[in-house]
Amino acid sequence: MTIEITASALARVGDVTVRRALPRRQRRTIGAWCFADHMGPVEATPTHGLDVGPHPHCGLQTVTWLTQGEVLHHDSLGSVQLIAPGQLNLMTAGRGVSHSEEATGSYAGPVEGIQLWMAQPEATRNGDPAFEHHGELPVFGLPGGNATVLVGTLAGVESPARIDSPMVGAELVFDSPSTLPVDPTFEHGLIVLDGAVVVDGESLTPGHLGYLEPGREELLLEPEGSVRVMVLGGVPFPEPLVMWWNYVARTRAEATAAHRAWLADDGRFGTVESTLERVIVDLPPWA
Ligand code: MN
């Protein structure tokens, strides 16, 4: 078993350049993780930031994790939540929710982070939307640094955040070789946000996804200097997904129905209090 390294795709979200590590043609999911955008850095002012206007989601949970700066989250549940580095915004879409990511009115400076989606399993994907903010998360020490557990359990340390299937998400910031015990039923992905880390003899840097198949009892990570790396893992997702735009569905017809509901503004995705415009794209090509 050796690490598989895939280059991320460059994309634009609002005014921000992102490095999209998931999904790629070669690698659609890692456990329930189905989307991973390393965004920024972008220079924010009090009135301009990520500036992602109201847009819909269904069938997934979104994780917003910042490494620099501040962002203001608004959603159709009425949540208005400032987020800063070390804090977790976790939005559960279920049958439908909408949200925006905005400037804070006060923060000026660089904004950088990662936006992740977790596919919801059949049992919860048509359920109620929800939003959680975790201002403090469990942290444990690593040689020359520490690990923050965003979701799930790593090295026996458990996050309080909601998950709907067996998985883990953590941020490691450290500068010395570390061996992490992991669940051998999980596959894992590594996304470096800053610096470089050697795994299985390969150097992993920003703009790439490192994939590790199930069966490992531990991960040996050897930083080259100081590194900031996300560890994403989970049991390989058992349900086939159809992902189109901001929807995670099971069929094209479901995705089309979701998008018709958004275009019609029929209430399924609620309303976001926002000064930004609703994001509108055309129907999918098959519709
Ligand atoms: Mn979103």
Structure description:
The chain is mainly β and 287 residues long. The protein is 5% helix and 51% strand. It contains one helix and 26 strands. The chain has one helix spanning 252-264; strands spanning 4-7, 9-13, 16-22, 33-44, 52-57, 60-68, 71-75, 80-83, 88-92, 97-102, 109-119, 130-134, 139-142, 145-151, 153-154, 157-158, 167-174, 178-181, 187-194, 197-199, 202-204, 208-212, 218-223, 227-234, 242-244, 247-249. The strands form six sheets. The chain has a seven-stranded antiparallel sheet, with no helix packed on it. The chain has a seven-stranded antiparallel sheet with strand order 2-3-4-11-6-9-12, with no helix packed on it. The N and C termini lie far apart (42 Å). The structure holds manganese (II) ion (MN). Manganese (II) ion (MN) binds at residues 55, 57, 62, 99, 246.
Record field, number of beta strands: 26
Write down the Rg.
Answer: 18 Å
Number of helices: 1
Shape descriptor reads globular
Structural class: mainly beta
**Helix share, percent:** under 10%
End-to-end separation in angstroms reads 42 Å
Widest β-sheet, arrangement of strands:
1-22-19-24-17-14-13
Note the beta-strand portion: over 45%
